[in-house]
Write a structure and sequence with these properties.
Elements lengths: L15 E4 L3 E4 L5 H24 L4 H8 L4 E2 H7 L5 H13 L3 E6 L5 E6 L1 H5 L1 H13 L1 H19 L10
Antiparallel strand pairs: 1-2, 3-5, 4-5
C-alpha cells in the first residue's frame, strides 16, 4: 500500500505517533494489560459522553418526568415547566423525538391536536432518572458542605490568607 495521507499506518506500542499539527506524542505501555486498561477507560468515557449527550439539554429530564404518566399536549408540558420558553420547548421536543425518546402524534381535528408521549426507550430512562434524583436529594447536605468549603478556600486564597480548611 502506498504511504499517503489516507493510508492506515500501524505503529508498535510506545512508538511515536503524530498528534495535532505535526507534534509527536509517545504512549508508553508496560504490557498488554495496560493497553486493555486504556481501551477500557476510553470505552467508558465514550459511553458516558453518549449518555450525557442524550440528556444534556437543560429541559430533557424534566420533559421525561412530565411524560412518564402518559401523553400530553405541548401546552400541558409548557404549563408544567413555565420557566422554559415555547421556542426552547419546541426545540427540546423535536430533539427528543429525533433521538427516539418521545413520539409526536398529530390528531386530524380542527384546530390541530398534537400530543407527545414516551417511546419504549424514553420509558426505559424513567427508573435510572428516578434513582439519580433520589441520589441527588440524599446528597444535598454533602454537596452544600463541599461548595461552602470550596468557596471559603477560594475567598481565603484571594485575600492572601491561603491555608487548608478542614471541616468535620
Amino acid at each position: 500500500m502506498a504511504a499517503g495521507a489516507n493510508a492506515l499506518q500501524v505503529r508498535k506500542i510506545g512508538e511515536e505517533e503524530p498528534v495535532g499539527r505535526g507534534r509527536k506524542h509517545t504512549k508508553h505501555f508496560k504490557g498488554r494489560g495496560s493497553m486493555r486498561k486504556i481501551v477500557g477507560l476510553e470505552d467508558r468515557a465514550l459511553q458516558s459522553r453518549e449518555a450525557i449527550e442524550l440528556l444534556s439539554s437543560k429541559w430533557r429530564i424534566a420533559v421525561l418526568n412530565i411524560l412518564r404518566d402518559g401523553p400530553l399536549r405541548t401546552s400541558e408540558i409548557q404549563g408544567a415547566i413555565s420557566e422554559v420558553s415555547s421556542k426552547v420547548l419546541t426545540e427540546t421536543l423535536r430533539g427528543m423525538q429525533r433521538d427516539g425518546l418521545i413520539d409526536r402524534q398529530i390528531f386530524g381535528v380542527v384546530p390541530a391536536h398534537v400530543e407527545y408521549g414516551l417511546t419504549g426507550m424514553g420509558r426505559s430512562l424513567i427508573k435510572p432518572l428516578r434513582d439519580l434524583c433520589h441520589w441527588a436529594k440524599a446528597h444535598v447536605a454533602e454537596r452544600d458542605q463541599a461548595r461552602s468549603k470550596f468557596e471559603l478556600a477560594a475567598k481565603m486564597s484571594q485575600s492572601g490568607k491561603a491555608r487548608q480548611v478542614v471541616f468535620k
